[in-house]
Amino acid sequence: MRVLVALAVLVGTAGMAWAESNGPVIAIPGRPGVPVIINGVDASYAVVEGDWGLDKGVHVQPTVYGGRPVEPMPPVGHYYPSSGHLPGYGRLEIESADKPKPAEPFHQSWSANSKQADPPAPLNQVPPYPPPVITAPRFNQNSIQQNFGNPRPEPRDPRGPDPRGPEHRP
Predict the structure, then answer these.
(1) How far apart are the C-alpha atoms of 31 and 87, rounded to whole Å?
(2) What are the residue boundaries of the structural domains of the chain, listed by start?
(3) Beta carbons within 8 Å of 152's beta carbon, 6+ residues apart
(4) 42-98 pLDDT, tens per residue?
């Protein structure tokens, strides 16, 4: 059963991929206002037919049905001597007779300095927010707190001393 489902998915996806790569397509622009240009023809929303792209190793000229030609050289404001056209002369600007009055003069400056150091505080003065002082609690001799200055004596054996000597105790 699993083999049949896997085979059906493989045939369905491979069939769609093969049909899309070889048949005619409708060229839809990826962004609004940006045309799809194929060999000087605006192919936006037109049918494009032919084996071309990454599918084949040989380039075949695509055919565009329903496209409109794009003008080969758009009018631009540059001068190219090889084109044979003379450039325009002067600026296309209209100078008005009543010009606005000039603005009043304005001057502003900035500067930067380091901060002046605070005067040193007297040595015997208490700071404005002193840190809290924490005193350690006192412990008696029988507490579980370690006392490294005076080590505790070894605990006594409740059975008493061994008459044979300490080497016979387990």
Answers:
(1) 35
(2) 24-69
(3) 141
(4) 999 999 887 666 656 566 788 899 988 887 766 666 666 777 776 666 666 666 777
